[in-house]
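Quick one - first record:
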Amino acid sequence: MNQRLSAHSADAVIIGAGHAGLSTSYYLTQMGLQHVVLEQGRTAESWRTRRWDSFTLITPNRWCRLPGFPYAGDNPDGFMKRHEIVSYLDTYASSFGAPVENGIQVTSVHQDARGTGYRVETSKGVYQAPVVVVATGFSELPKIPGWSTQLPSDVAQVHSSNYRNPQTLPPGAVLVVGSAQSGCQIAEELHESGRRVYLCVGSAGRAVMRYRGQTGWQVPMERLERTVDQLPSPRAKFAGNPHGSGTLGGHTINLHQFARDGITLLGRFQEAQGDRLSFAPDLKENLAHADKVAADFKRDVDAYIERAGLDTPPPDANNTDDYEGDDGYRQPEVLELDLRSAGIQTVVWAMGFARDYRWIHLPITDDDGYPLQQRGVTAYPGLYFMGLRYQYKAKSDLFYGVGEDAAFVAGEIAKLVSGERQV
């Protein structure tokens, strides 16, 4: 034990001051439970420093409804930019006096010897509490394949969380690896800046942002209410988010349009051997999957409109922002590429993040590294998670739905703390 660490106590310690941690803090504050929110940086730190300059939410502003703080601006159909997200969360924390302590890194969490509480070791002391809420986000470690070390040393490598804008990259062409939201949005920005772009396409679907005259069909269709047990398999919750964008008022990103505009589409990145890169022969398969996801969505919207008897524009090309071409299928499939011949000077890894909970000294993850929990509640009394993807529903990690889980977890905490006080 480090005797230099000072002792703190509270009813609960929340780790992370993002939208999940703050939503939980809101309810604990309403209940009068003494707690502290520990943040290694500043409130909304990941939104400040792990998103690129032009980043926007892909969900409309009207979906931003944190507990007690729904969006009240004059652009409900718009999409918040990065600095607006930070401002929204800063203002939210101030609105109820969230007890956030910034600049405190949590290094470990241990269950105490009696099994009735937790010891939270941090960079600025030890916190003792009967309750710990882990609200650090769905994933933490940038995912970069091991064979990235085989790339030439003079080729810059940047993870999407460290990408800022095209001007910060070396001159030359860019290879973007990953075609979920981040990869496609970054590829689009690089192309529009005049860069030659190569994009490795994975299995992410296509999000049709505007169809039959409006956005946000997922809410009235209750798609975000789907629970984790309704997924085809437990691992389905790890699928890449369908590609779309909140820029320019929100628009669909279509890989066939990328091909038409001059972006070179590639299959999955397989390996690197010096200047030689190899790719899987699965480009057309991945394009077909993205097309199917979009087509199925449109079909489901059409069926919903018919059932509900809604008066909307017809389902034709004039009432969707989804490109109707098939250019991607007509691009020659490239299985090998020479970095020098292609002029590639930068690789942007947009493969997402890996889960890392090794700092919690309890067996609380499954074989995939995902926390073992039911709607945020673990088998260890007083240990909870918040803000996980598909923690309970499809909306659990979104500004739109995190409050529902926060209310549930806060209620469980209140029952636990009340029971302990009666002992």
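second record:
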Amino acid sequence: MIQRQISKTSMFQPKLGELVIRIVVTVLLIVVATPTFSQGPKSSPASPVVVAEVYEAEVHPTQEFVGTVIPERRAMIGSAVDGRVAEYLVNEGDRVESGAVLAKLLDETITKEIEAAAAELAFREQELNELQSGSLPAEKMQAAAMLQIAEAEQDLANSAYRRTQRLYETRGASTASELDEAKAQFQVAIANIAERKAAKQLVDDGPRKERILRAQAQRDKQQAIVDKLKDQKKKHQMISRFAGYVVAEQTEEGEWVNRGDAVAEIVALDNVDVLVHVLESYVPHIQLGMKVDVRIPSLNFREGENPQTFSGTVARIIPEADSRSRTFPVKVRVKNIIDDDGPVIKSGMLARVELPVAGKALSLLVPKDALVLKESSRAVWRVNRSGDVGHGTVEQISVKTGLSSGSKIAVIEKLKVGDLVVVEGNERLRPAAQVKILKTVSH
């Protein structure tokens, strides 16, 4: 039995070997029969670039001047009165708005004076109102009644006098003294009527104009006293007259200050001025309102970034030169950037300003960013467009540069109007490299 199984195994071994050989041969044939395509050298991808056109224009040749950032406004806030500092409300570096209170002096005494003066003013106003309102209806009725009483008394005195006179003349029943007394009583009654009529007329007419004017003057005088005291109280508070930043503290709480003593120094930095000194031969080419570029080298927000550039306006040309250097001060105003940390441009920073130094000249211009600086020469990458819109190849053109104007610079020879030069992405280009134009910047 065992011998028979061995014989069967031996019978299958040659067939298994043949099967393996056939599989290997088949695989080799498939590999050999598969066509091989030549890939050739891989083409490099097109480099993305930003380009600008070469153009011709009349421009002012410019020169870079070094200047210093100064505040648009600066003020030393002082005390207008003598007093002791009760509250000091700011710290160095704080931003304050126009009208903000910086410090307060003790003001209890002047507050009491204002209260007393205001009470006197109220009395004067009430007195004037009474005079201007005239007599009350009850006062007029009283004057009329008193006149009626006087008239009645006159009638009675007249009757008594007439009767006494008849008795004296006809019968001799009355004496001469009685007659004189009756006559006197009658005359007193007549005088009382005149007095009552005048009193009634005064009540009907009201106070005299002169009396009203005198009361008005007294009221106005007291109003001026109150206003003066209130103004003095306001001076017990030191305020900022413009928005800015506290750069110096000059006192503390509890300290006594005299009138005119400094309390704090405020500078306005929402707009700043860059002060540069320009040679007298350049001044005629600088005009008020002219737009110029201002660079602050210290404001490199990212490592390797070019100095931050701002747009400035020539705000002041001081018409008096330094007698030794023959330079004129020029102020270029720049709008500052205010963020959570305060003003980005700070007073005292170094700045560089591009100012014109000659008259206009016709030149071919390219952006300064298009220049590739070499050891002894300068060049630009010119783009030669291919049939595919937005693509092309580059070639390096050596150029000579002329005077600059802002962010543009004049180029001499080998370029013409309308040529495209690379302004971004030119750091790693090679001759004949393929490029893809992402954008064409305008001039």
